[in-house]
Amino acid sequence: MALKRRNLIISVFALAATAALLLWRPTVLIYGLQAAGLYAAIAIPMGLVLGIVHIVNLAHGEFMMLASYATYFTCKALGMDPLIAIVPTAIVTAIFGWIIFQLTIRRALKAPELNQLILTFGIAIVFSQAINLVFTSQTYKMPLDYVSASMDIGELTFGIWSFVFVAAAILFAGGLNFFLKRTTTGKAALAVGQNPKGAAIVGIDVYRTYGLVFALAIALVGAMGALFLTKSAIFPTVGSPFTMKSFCLVAMAGVGNIPGILSASVLLGLTENFLRAFRGSREWADIVFFVLIIVVIMSRSLKGRKS
Amino acid sequence: MNRTLARSLPVAAIGVAILLPMFMGDYPLQVARNIMLYMALAVTWDMLLRSGQISFGIAGLFGLGSYASILAVVRGGMPGWLSIPFAGLFAGLAAFLIGFLILRLRHTYFSIVTLALGEIFRIIIHNMHDFSGGPEGIVVQQGIIFGGASRNLYWLTLAGLAVALLASYWFEKSKVRFALTAIRNNEISAKSSGVNIFRWLLLAFVVTSAIQGMMGGIFVMSYGFASPETVFSADFTLLPLAMALLGGIHSTVGPILGGLLLGLVSEWLKLQIPYGHLVVYGVMIVVVILFMPQGLLGLARKTMRAAGRNRK
């Protein structure tokens, strides 16, 4: 009862704050939501891997970066639009992710957590430095006109293309929810995530499921890589901040809580853009995320201590 | 015979390290300085790892020490030599305060928080334009310590490395080792045997952070310049980590070995390929974790044991 009441109070406060923000600085809300969509769409696959394979994939953002580079050069060569490349990229990166899983991560599944963490850290370095080696640190960008599409409401003008990220995030969350709850493979994956030994006893091939889930997550990240390319310039280390942000969001939402990732992303996106809206605090927007990650982890650990 | 060799080898190594500048030009000395710097960081990273805590925040504390040192000189008028121990003290104090918060965390959470803290330090320094010089960095107007004499700078870095090695030796030979190993192996049983886990972790964290900060001080004093991008560079986390892993973790010799090997290889590669030579570090980390988690040292021990068995 008390919990329900507290939740009610929190949501009323959140609604009031959003309304106030909407009246006062509408752009904060719009750009905040767009940023939140991008963060969530990238974080959801990481949440999937962490929830089922129980691996913190520190090469998460690097997979996206690789997909972006692959898309860029394919599209450049064929004169194709990155939007058409989303599905092929997802398929190719899924295969690539599956191979990487079988070659490296699978061998470390039983190893101590230290080894897994350092392993994926090493993979991240290999990816970003290999790209650095081949393409140098030069930035690449796709010139696309539809990206600068904008909309006017009264006095206000804002870019609308980035709402595509919000759509992607909602699509990912909904799709995964359907996959995990309604399909046989998805249910098996969920079972493996909850109890690998039990799942093995009832006849689920645990390692095959791990590989599948990992490949699926990398496919989603790959699709995001192609989508990301429409909006942003790419360079070798473009993915690494997203690894950190994704981990922060997943940790905030709690492992296995995909809808939670959406709300955590909204919080992060809004706070960042709120600080960006003012001259004095613009430069401090980057710090929000790191402070948030520490606060979240600390409060979680304290809560765990109490119970 | 074996024992005399084991005794005389370190003595010989120390002798060679001290006398090296007599026989070498400026460029090799600078390479040696770089290697010693990373080696010291690798040893300190490993010292904390002996308690089972993986820090990804070496660059953060290194950068913090760097700025403590250079700001003390430029803004506070401190003499250059004094700013180096000051940097260590400052980083140690910061670690002491931070430790109260974060040393209750374990596993991935600890690692991620150390990484985040490093980034927070970087952004703060980056944004305090008037005090820290902002993104353009800050220069020591009084000139580099020792007038930039490369021999003296070499000995200075060697002294820093010596501090790190002595601390590591102390960790290995005193009861600190038992405490940290007990915590690493099984925290609950360590606690029930009366090991005050938090206190030992705090000790390890403060000592290693202080040394990392001090190395930062030595680094900026040797170059007379610091900017957020150089001193908080991810290399300062990455390279020591790879070195310690390659050489063999949970020992003093391992990081030295790995540092020597990777340091020389990377210096050579840097000349061959300007972009992306760090890929070697990534590959090294992956290969070591997958195929020889005990590093070169573990591999050597294994082969020696196998050879010994065959002889019998």
From TrEMBL, chain A:
Major place of residence: membrane
GO biological process: amino acid transport
Signal peptide span: none
Regions that span the bilayer: 7-24, 36-56, 85-105, 117-138, 158-180, 210-229, 249-271, 283-302
Top-rank taxon: Bacteria
Family affiliation: Belongs to the binding-protein-dependent transport system permease family. LivHM subfamily.
Any one GO MF annotation of this record: transmembrane transporter activity
The organism of origin for this protein: uncultured Spirochaetota bacterium
Entry keyword Transmembrane: yes
Alphabetically ordered keywords of this record: Amino-acid transport, Cell membrane, Membrane, Transmembrane, Transmembrane helix, Transport
Recorded topology in the membrane: Multi-pass membrane protein
One Pfam family linked to the record: BPD_transp_2
Name this protein carries in UniProt: High-affinity branched-chain amino acid transport system permease protein LivH
Compartment list: Cell membrane
Keyword Metal-binding: no
GO annotations of cellular component type: plasma membrane
